[in-house]
Specification:
By secondary structure, this protein is an alpha/beta fold. The chain has one domain: Rossmann fold. It is built from eight helices and eight strands; from the N terminus they run H-H-E-H-E-H-E-H-E-H-E-H-H-E-E-E. An eight-stranded mixed sheet has the order 3-2-1-4-5-8-6-7. Strand 6 and strand 7 form a beta hairpin.
Length: 249
Amino acid sequence: MNTNNSGGNDGFSGQNVDQNEIAKFEALANRWWDPNSEFKPLHEINPLRLNYIDERAPLPGRKVLDVGCGGGLLSEGMAQRGAHVTGIDLGEAPLSVAKLHGLESGVKVDYRRIAVEALAEEPEHAGQYDVVTCLEMLEHVPNPASIIQACAKLLKPGGDLFVSTINRNPKSFLFAIVGAEYVLNLLPKGTHEWRKFIRPSEMADFLRHAHFEVADLTGMTYNPLTKIYKLGRDVDVNYMMHARLDGRS
């Protein structure tokens, strides 16, 4: 649920970033690791996300890049499962929280404030990652296709990319904005803009143009009565996608 990444002279060129989106998460950063805060949904879906990634691209020993890492929830989880993780983000406050939590937890993650596009231009990082994750973030940037292209540059041929975002349709407006932000108060009001949501067909198109092959599409649903999230076939609102970079690239 975070934005893309850049920083000062270390990667703000290109500016594929919405400063209003950055400000939203900067303001909430100190509550990132509180499971009862505005980030409660992230805490509750994190095991689902981790299991999905680990099952499809086993994490132990893998070199992993977490794009839009925010306060480090997913990054730490992947590191705990044996991955060598780099987390990047544009928000200075969330990264400070991530680094501090890493010191407290003893979980090693390399955090940097840099745009994924800028990181992809660094020779020592291009083509070096086994796995790239970009979760709950693409709906917050002006040009998601640019993010996907940069992820392709950073992956080794045959590498795995995991993305998650929100579908754009009347149901997602009702559930992800009206329901989640105004009725159930699962998220702060104004967290999402419906026009920035991405249909699975659009995501698949971004991936194909970046030489990825879509390996899997799965939905994530929330039951307000049981308060349980689960993965399944319903991709009408939230969904995750696994893609593999063409080994010939």
